[in-house]
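User: I'm writing a short report section on ligand binding and want a predicted complex to refer to. Could you take this sequence and flavin-adenine dinucleotide and write out the structure as tokens? A short remark afterwards would be nice.
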Amino acid sequence: MEKERDVIIVGAGPAGATAAAILAQQGHDILLLDRQSFPRDKICGDGIPNGVISIMNGLGMTEKVQAAEARGDFNPLSQVRLVSPKGHTVDAPLIDRNDGTKSYVAPRKVLDALIQEQAVESGADFRQAQAQEPIVENGKVVGVRAKVGSNGSTQTVDFRSKLVIGADGVTSVVARGLRPKEEQHVDGHRAVALRAYIEGIEEIPHTAEFYLYEEINPGYAWIFSLGNDRANIGLGMRLDQFRHTKRKLEDLLYEFLDMPDIKKRLKNGGNLRDIATWQLNFGSQKGLKFAFDGAMLVGDAAGFINPITGGGIHNGMISAELAAKTAHEALTAGNTSLSQLKIYQQRCQEHLYPSLRRSYRYQEILMRFPRLIDFLIRRGQENSQVAQIFLSKL
Ligand SMILES: Cc1cc2nc3c(=O)[nH]c(=O)nc-3n(C[C@H](O)[C@H](O)[C@H](O)COP(=O)(O)OP(=O)(O)OC[C@H]3O[C@@H](n4cnc5c(N)ncnc54)[C@H](O)[C@@H]3O)c2cc1C
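Assistant: Sure. The structure tokens for the complex follow:
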């Protein structure tokens, strides 16, 4: 029999591990579950905006971040390049936050393991287990049913807690168990993207490059510099539009690499590895629920990705902070029912929703009037604020 915990957090990605670290540091009894052991890969562009680093510093990770940069695992970013369909280019310097934090390109295998490690060092109890469904009794979530053990000797265990936080990413079983079907993400608020690592590319040092062009509008291709002729490379598209193209993302990637401006930068054709696709759920869809009786959803499980940039790590960690604050108040009050947790819904609406919704409106405009992209990037050559706005959405 497993003892009842204060909080079970399902998923130890940046959102889940952040919530776990905060709540464990406050002295709560936290069980952090993930179906994978760490370090593990997560399909991503690895673009880490400085807001993420600021939150990591708040968790007590300043030295870990500095050490990762010194080892060369975190490659600092100094500028963003935007390239329009007609080839107009704007380079915008990145402005450090007031607290001095930088943005990076950091492989998720490294980044996520550091935050998960911080959660464990803060006192969270980590277990490798694959959640199957939330346990609901009399309409209230009271725990999680999960499979533990490896091939051949798996067993199903009921883990019980006062509160459950679903942080199990875009395919969340916690969200699926709690949100009615009609409240789940529709194709117009989703994207699909492909990521690969490339070796043998003449990179633009410390630069995140974004290529916006018609075949993948609304969406973009990216090259994020990792140093030493290596980069994270990929492309993504809004799912409803992608379905119309009837193309494969991998073919679109090869076409991107074949563009003259990219091709001439490849050494011996470039060496691609770890090509993989994954989904993204935008935070712009109306009417999504994040708070339930006995449970909350954070990060990609809730769907907080920015529709224009595809960035979701920062929003995921902000939602984790909001959920941890709400959980702490609920545990202190001895009430983890929806009447207490519904403030989390309100906090997400205030802190995250307005900018996500705005980004979606911009995306709709750019989709309908693609020539605007050329116009804006040309304007950006004169006024780097346009590029700064794009970056601040990452
Ligand atoms: C191709 C691509 C490129 C992207 N590029 C960027 C970028 O450059 N910058 C950026 O900010 N964002 C980017 N994103 C979005 C970003 O990856 C996500 O927003 C971010 O990972 C969300 O973090 P999370 O902790 O909510 O979820 P995740 O990072 O997905 O973590 C979820 C965790 O839950 C675990 N899990 C899943 N199911 C279960 C289960 N049943 N039981 C137990 N554990 C489970 C998983 O193993 C995982 O560890 C990109 C996404 C894609 C697909």
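A remark for your report: The two ends are 44 Å apart (CA to CA). The chain has 14 helices and 17 strands.
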